[in-house]
Structures are given as structure tokens and as C-alpha cells.
Amino acid sequence: MTHTSSAAKTAYLLVAGRLTLPADLCTFPPPDLVIAADGGARHAAGLGLNVDAWVGDFDSAQGDELDVARKVHPTAKDETDGELATQLALAQGCTRLVFVGAFGGRFDHAAALLLGAVRLAERGVDVWLTSGDEHARPLIPGRPLALALPTGTTLSVVAVSDLQGLSLDGVRWPLTGADVPLGSGWTLSNQSRGQVRAELEQGRALLVWHTLGD
């Protein structure tokens, strides 16, 4: 387990989506706490992470073994395994959450995770999501994002509501105070020019970037 020097306490939450290795996590903060959510435990070895807690109903963890006690929940529950991991991380005082294995897998779970990340950001939690080669952060009013990305990195702003006052700098096609309707493709497939900054006056969005091979 690696400890950060910043004041924010960071948890890596290993969820059961896709993870491409080697994972490009160089822009991500290192963890103070690692929690596996059910089948997400399979990502630990490839990332060289020691898991501190393992939670879920364990319906998708067949064959996975970790040297850590399981916190078993019933299959008939109101939360996803990812939500159980989130609750535990917040209870441990974590204010920055990195969901590893966030994309791919079951669409309903991935969609709920992405929308839940926006809700967490609105509560003041710093949220990151990754599947090793695809990454995202929620973008909400009053919480501008700044990312140092290699020049030419493909990035998109995905509007999950109508957006007002979207500004985007450090990209091939910058925007200033733009209004973007829900689900618009206008803000997809931009390219970074180094330090990227995104800011929003109203609405909810996800800033998504890709580190895919050619």
C-alpha cells in the first residue's frame, strides 16, 4: 500500500469491469487504501496492489483469492458491490476515490458507476475512473478540472445533462462559455495540447480521455 503526501486520503476501488494492462495510471494519485469490490479483486495482482478490504456478495469472484478477510453481503441487497466499496472508503475518511476497472463489463453497472461518480463529486468527493486505457473525471459547476496530458491525447466532454458555460482550454478546439445539449456529440474527440483545463457554469458532465495504442 502506498501513501500519498497530500492531505486528501485516496482509496482505489477495484470494480469488476475491464482493465487493460499495463494500466496507464501515471496521472492518477497513488492509494492510501485499496478496496476490492467482489470480482474486481482480479485486478489487484496485475497492478501490484495489496488489498486492504474485500466487499460484496461474491457472486462474481469465483476463483479469486486474496489474503484479506471478506466482508460478505447478501445477494438480495439495495446497493451494488461498487457502492458498498464506496461506502466503506468514505467511512474510512477517504475524500478521493479512484475506480479501477470502471468501463466495460455490464453496461448497467458501468452506467450506474459513471452517474454515481457525478453524484459523489457534487458531495465534494474527488473522483477518478479508469480501465487502464480509458479514464474519466466528473465535471460539475464550481469544480474546474486541470489535467497534464500528452499532446494529441483524445479527450471528450460527455454531457449527462444540458450544459451551460462550458469552457475548455489546452485543446485543439477550445471552447469559451459554450452551451451543450444533453447527449450532444459536439464535444467528443477533441485533442489535448498539453495542460487541459475544463470549467462549467451549469450542468453535469464527464471529462473522458483515452490512452489507447495506435
Explain this structure to me?
Keywords: ATP-binding, Kinase, Nucleotide-binding, Transferase. This is Thiamine diphosphokinase. This protein is α/β, with parallel strands linked by helices. It folds into two domains: 10-132, Thiamin pyrophosphokinase, catalytic domain (Rossmann fold, 3-Layer(aba) Sandwich); 145-210, Thiamin pyrophosphokinase, thiamin-binding domain (Jelly Rolls), CATH 2.60.120. It is built from three helices and 13 strands, in the order ββαββαβαββββββββ. The model is unreliable at 1-5 (pLDDT under 50).
Descriptors:
about 210 residues; Rossmann fold; 2 domains; 13-stranded mixed beta sheet; disordered N terminus
**Whole-angstrom Rg:** 17 Å
CATH class of the largest domain reads: Alpha Beta
CATH architecture of the largest domain: 3-Layer(aba) Sandwich
What is the global morphology?
A: globular
Remind me, CATH topology of the largest domain? Rossmann fold
Order of helices and strands: EEHEEHEHEEEEEEEE
EC number: 2.7.6.2
Keywords: ATP-binding, Kinase, Nucleotide-binding, Transferase
Pfam family, one: TPK_catalytic
GO molecular function: ATP binding; kinase activity; thiamine binding; thiamine diphosphokinase activity
